[in-house]
Structures are given as structure tokens and as C-alpha cells.
Amino acid sequence: MNRRKFITATAAATGATLLSGTAAAADDTLPARVRHTLDQALAAGAPSAVCGVIQGGRTYVAGAAGKGKRKPNGRTVFQLGSIGKTLTATALARAVTEGETRLDAPLTLPARFPVPRKGPRRITLADLATHTSGLPRLPEGLLDGANPYDPYAHYTLDDLAEGLAKTTLATKPGTKYAYSNLGFGLLGQALAFDRVDEMLRHRVARPLGLTDTTTTLRPDMLLRKAVGHAGGIPVPDWHDHVLSGAGSSMYSTANDMLRYLAAQLRPERSPLRSAIELTQRPHFDTGEGLRLGLAWHLLPRPGGRTMTLHDGGTGGFTTFAAFYRDSGTAVVMMVNTFSQDADGKQYPIGPLAGELLNDLDAAH
């Protein structure tokens, strides 16, 4: 993979993974099913993997690693990637339910950041949260001079202002789904300009008890952090000081993500009940078998049921989280490798975790 192709692939990492099939293991106990999925992840090339599930009120976490690699557990720190978008969407939903803004409020930024337009309707906060803003996937100028292994690190607010002035919307706002890291980055800035990380920590992570979900590694987290890989080679973490609302520089653990998924399954037990309910509500229908909540992707399944999911990835990590709310079943999976190998082959982390979720749900 050449340098330009690699940097584009990594910077644009993640979107929703559509799933099919059902996993199977000879031993149908919960630990055996999880182990089967972990073994498949290692066989696909992941240096290590951790998987957590919620089924029937029970929580279970296990990890696995290749030869000579450190075995992860529920406290091992991974970069989260775009699952972080659902936290930004929760912050938006909390602002809406507490009367601070509206979903149909136009995107407003400081004057030096021109908001692109196409047609009479302005981009709204709901457009950003449902990937229907018409904005491109990546900001204009992001790749110019970027480090392919840390593509957002050099990007500044000045770069954002300059890039927005050159940005053209592909479609009229609110009309078509097109996944956009830029859109969610701008949503974070609209909610808490230049204090996005602090806002997510105080308004979402802390109330939900997500003590290891943050963009700033504490010393104890450094000791527990997995090393990211791409093509079997260790690579640096991503750093993003401007568009972090897209989840590009967030860290988390399987334990934290299980707490988060537990709140999704039972919002009535959460201090953020109204906000969580709003994020899971359908807000846009693509017309192609996929609906959008606020960040969450709502995938119809047989029998009229819905899988709610989001995946994530940075240059050295791939993640996936999904749940069936009606059966109280959820899965999170984290591996410390980029989602593609050097030849562009996709690691099947999302499908593996989704198949495990379907398997556990069917057995419920």
C-alpha cells in the first residue's frame, strides 16, 4: 500500500459494518462462544483481542493473544475510534433534552469558520449526528503534510477554518447519508468549542461511570494500554486536538464499554436516560435497509427486530459494539490492529462480533 493510499484509508477509518450469518461453536457455553470468536480474530491476524458480552443480565469478558503477545483483559486500554461518535451524539442529546439546543438548530461556529451551504436549508445539528450534512468524509487539506501513522496530529483550528472556506457540500443537507468524520468533528466543536474533550468527559463519560474513556491517558492507563499495529508492525496512537468529537483520539476499555452498553440496554437505570433514548430513536432512513439514530446505526434483522451498532478504528486499533435492546444482549470487541492489512484486506472484526451477538441473542 503506498503512502497516500494508506494515509487516506487510516484517516477515514470506520463506518457501520453491515452483518450477516451466525457464529457457531462446538461448546455452546458463553465462555466457549466468546473464545471461539477470539480465536477467529487471532486467526485473521489480530495480535490480541478482547471481547465482552452482556446476556441475560450476566457480564463476561475474555481476552486472547498471539504467541509472545500480552493477553488483554477488561481493563486493557485500546483506542476506541468512531464508537466515540456515539458519546458525542449523547452529549448532543443531553443538550437537547435539557433545553439547551434543538436537533433542528443550525450548525453555528465562530465567525472565522465558514459553514458550507447547498440550497436554502442550513446544516443542522441533526444532520451532523446522522451523517446527512453533505460534508465530505475528511476535512479539506487534512492529508497535506500529514504523518500517515498519526494523520490528525498536525491539524489545527486554523487549518479547519481554511479548509471550510474551500469545502463544497456533495448533497443538500438532510437528504442523503454519507459517513463524515468532519461532520462529527464539527458537531463536537458546535457543542463545546475548543473544549470538546472536557465536555465529553464531564457530560457523558463521568455520569455513566466510564472512568477509562478519555482522550488523555493517565499514568495507570499507560501501563495497561495495548500497542497498536498495522500490517503486523507497531504503530503510534492517533492524536487529534480539533476533530476529536469524531472519536479519532479517544481511549477506552472493554469494561467501560460494557458499562456503556448496559446503559444502552437499560436507559431507565442511567442518569442520562432521556439522552440515551433520543440517540437510539430513528432520525433518518437511508431507504436501503439502514436507519440512523444519533450516531448509532440501526440495522433491521429478521422478525422485525433491530441491531443497534457502531464500529471504530484508528491507525492501530479496530473496535465494534452492538446490542439488541429487546433481549438485553450486547457485544463489544477490541483488537490492536488497523482494520486493513498492507494489501487492503479487511480484518473481519465487525462481522465476527456481530455474528457472536446474533448467536447469543438467538440462544437467549
Number of helices: 11
- Structure classification: alpha+beta
Helical proportion?
25-40%
Task: Count all strands and give the number.
Answer: 12
Oligomer: single chain
- Approximate shape: globular
Sheet of most strands:
8 strands, antiparallel
Approximate strand percentage: 15-25%
Descriptive report:
The protein has 364 residues and is α+β, with helices and mostly antiparallel strands. Helix 2 (30-43) packs antiparallel against helix 11 and helix 3 (84-97) packs across helix 6. The chain is 31% helix and 15% strand. Strand 4 and strand 5 (233-234) form a beta hairpin. Mean pLDDT is 92; it is low at 20-25. It starts with a helix and ends with a helix. An eight-stranded antiparallel beta sheet has the order 2-1-12-11-10-9-8-7, sandwiched between helices. A two-stranded antiparallel ribbon has the order 3-6. It is globular and about 60 Å long. It is built from eleven helices and twelve strands.
Short description:
With 364 residues, the protein is of the alpha+beta class.
Write the layout of secondary structure elements.
Blueprint: H1 3-11, H2 30-43, E1 48-55, E2 58-65, E3 78-79, H3 84-97, H4 125-129, H5 157-165, H6 181-191, H7 196-205, H8 219-224, E4 229-230, E5 233-234, E6 251-252, H9 254-265, H10 273-280, E7 284-285, E8 291-292, E9 297-301, E10 305-313, E11 318-324, E12 329-335, H11 349-363
Antiparallel strand pairs: 1-2, 1-12, 3-6, 4-5, 7-8, 8-9, 9-10, 10-11, 11-12
